[in-house]
Amino acid sequence: MIIAGSDSSGGAGIQADIKTVTALGSYAMTAITAVTIQNTTGVKAIVTIDSNEISNQIEFTAKDIKPDAIKIGMLHSSKVIKSVIRSLDIIKVKKIILDPVMIAKGGAKLINDKAVELLKNELIQKVSLITPNIPEAEILTGTKIKTKEDMIYAANVLIGLGAKNVFIKGGHLETNAVQDIFVNKKEIMIIKNRRIATSNTHGTGCTLSSAISTFFSCGKTLKKSCELATKYVNNSIRSNLNYGKGYGPINHLSSITVDKKLR
Ligand SMILES: Nc1ncnc2c1ncn2[C@@H]1O[C@H](COP(=O)(O)OP(=O)(O)OP(=O)(O)O)[C@@H](O)[C@H]1O
Ligand SMILES: [Mg+2]
Questions:
Q1: Is residue 225 within 6 Å of ligand 1 at its C-beta?
Q2: How far apart are CA 167 and CA 144, in angstroms?
Q3: Which portions of the chain are predicted below pLDDT 70?
Q4: What is the predicted pLDDT for the residue at 113?
């Protein structure tokens, strides 16, 4: 089950999440938290969904088909975060991945300050893994991140705040190789990939957290799920679709070959 916002351009948000889960062979259900009006050049407007209706989607859907895992994306206000926490307590799903989405690729702010505090103090402790990008990790920890060592330090600050597992995405650091890190109390894993020179990286973060959730829901360990998900995202960026005039989408179908009969 995906709890997140809709991206009308199809490259990020719920649309990216559904494509990812589907392309990796699983079944996606959704609870939509907001409708964003955007294209690859930026966000024009955000229409929020009433927090009771978000809870209604989560609880009614899960009552029928119990999710094997939950991926949480955009939660724009403290009211929404509180409702989601309440619903999570009711449906009792153990595997939860939180992508603490705060700023869209074009720079639009997707969450308010009070909500950031609530995320930090009440939600990150309840989930299996959080997947902030560099700016989000900086906001959540109050640290500056310029190097891999800074990333590890910030991840440990998040562990100190009660996060069980932390995955910090290195896409925003201007290094030759992209380095993502997975940290918990027992281990540190660094995943290094060649940086692909492209501006078509809209939705990489949403895609990554949905891919992790899918592998995790199917019984892989969290660590293995993170490794496989970064591979999938890397392949999807490499396809370089080049749609739109701004930050274009990645190719979610990079894992799929079309049956000959359907060509
Ligand atoms: N140019 C690139 N080449 C290769 N991998 C990349 C590139 N940019 C991002 N990635 C990978 O994509 C994943 C998502 O990282 P990123 O830092 O872009 O997340 P994000 O900022 O949350 O994305 P979003 O814009 O969707 O919110 C990470 O695994 C990262 O290493
Ligand atoms: Mg993101």
A1: no
A2: 17
A3: 105-106
A4: 85
Report the distance separating Cα 208 and Cα 217, nearest Å: 14
Which residue is catalytic, options 20, 95, 120, 206? 206
User: What is the pLDDT, as a whole number, of residue 106?
Assistant: 67
pLDDT tens, position by position, 234-254: 999 999 899 999 999 999 999
Candidate list 30, 204, 207, 214, residue with the active-site label = 204
Per DSSP bridges, beta strands 177-184 and 42-48 are unpaired
36, 201, 207, 230: the active-site residue: 201
Asked whether the whole model's pTM tops 0.90, one would answer yes
> What pLDDT, on the 0 to 100 scale, is given for residue 175?
86
Phi, psi of 117 (to 5 degrees): -60, -45
Which protein residue's CA is at the shortest distance from atom 16 of ligand 1? 171
| DSSP per-residue string spanning 178-207 | EEEEEEESS-EEEEEEEPP--S--BTHHHH
| CATH architecture under which domain 2-254 falls | 3-Layer(aba) Sandwich (3.40)
Residue ranges of the domains in the chain? 2-254
Q: Cα(108)–Cα(111) distance, rounded to whole angstroms?
A: 9
Check if 178 has its Cβ closer than 6 Å to any atom of ligand 1. yes
Catalytic site includes residue 42: no
pLDDT per residue over 40-53, tens digit each? 999 999 999 999 99
Q: Residue 111's pLDDT is what? A: 84
Q: Give me ligand 1 centre to Cα 231, in Å.
A: 12
Per-residue pLDDT, 234: 96
- How far away, in angstroms, is 68 Cα from ligand 2 center? 23
